[in-house]
């Protein structure tokens, strides 16, 4: 009964937050590495892995991207070891660094043979930047794309010839 | 006649003396449970999450609520922390049809809009429970599934 009554008032909670709350949210920001937005009534935190998943999905949507490949030994040699340790296992192939307002994305992918790779990379980049901004409000400063391999659709047939 | 009720109130009061309002004692775990029920009704919320670093839960006698943390930044204030897993399908649908976002939140990034809906739901619960002073509602989006 009282539920209904409360439900019908769309009014937002009082817009008079304590400033002490803000400063504590700022202190927390250094501990939790994720998107933090203080609406004045409490903070909203979006985990890094969520941003990574959005980026991964946006990349996979582009035709010509065959698949995302986990950053493996090659990445370690390239000196990404520190960042790898932070990355989420489930969103493999995508590394994100997320700050308060901005994000950077690193992506490892294999590409269908025959597409123009710079064009494809640009399409992936645009889709990721647009999607992350629309979903989280983060501004994506850079998307580094690593085309690690080509995918040949006829590959399986070639291999079956040698048994 | 109303002795049993009194006794029940006395039994829980020790754990809940801080959330006293209008003579009704509310334990943290009761607040958490009501909050959980409300959050599960918010469109786009798939589940509650146990948190990423440390178990996010509120504990009470014989039960606990995972994904909702009721804490007290000051002795007479209550803060609520919510850890949610959102539906990938739902957030994508909102992205494709931004006009489906409710009035005041339209134009906000999708995840922020959903987080705001969660926050409003918690505030509604707090009002229903007559929670004296809700310091703030922190919404953590821990995963997208």
Give the tags.
heterodimer; A: 163 residues; alpha+beta; Alpha-Beta Plaits; four-stranded mixed β-sheet; two-stranded antiparallel sheet; disordered N terminus; B: 145 residues; 4 helices; 6 strands; 38% helix; globular
Helix-strand category of chain B:
alpha+beta
Structural class from helices and strands of chain A? alpha+beta
Q: Look at the structure and name the CATH superfamily of chain B.
A: Cation efflux protein, cytoplasmic domain
Shape of chain A: elongated
Helix content of chain B: 25-40%
String of helices and strands of chain B: HHEEEEEHHE
User: What's the total count of β strands of chain A?
Assistant: 6
- What share of residues are in beta strands of chain B? 15-25%
Descriptive account of the structure:
Chain A is of the alpha+beta class. Chain A is built from 7 helices and 6 strands. In chain A, helix 3 crosses helix 6. Mean pLDDT of chain A is 72; it is low at 1-33. Chain B is of the alpha+beta class and 145 residues long. Chain B has one domain: Alpha-Beta Plaits, CATH 3.30.70.1350. Chain B is built from 4 helices and 6 strands, in the order H-H-E-E-E-E-E-H-H-E. Chain B has helices at 3-16, 28-40, 88-96, 110-128, and strands spanning 45-48, 57-60, 63-66, 68-71, 78-86, 134-144. Chain B starts with a helix and ends with a strand.
Which secondary structure elements does this structure contain, and how are they paired or packed?
The complex is a heterodimer of chains A (163) and B (145).
Chain A: H1 2-8, H2 19-29, E1 35-38, E2 43-46, H3 48-60, E3 65-68, H4 73-77, H5 81-86, E4 94-98, E5 102-112, H6 117-136, E6 139-151, H7 155-161
Parallel strand pairs in A: 5-6
Antiparallel strand pairs in A: 1-2, 3-5, 4-5
Chain B: H1 3-16, H2 28-40, E1 45-48, E2 57-60, E3 63-66, E4 68-71, E5 78-86, H3 88-96, H4 110-128, E6 134-144
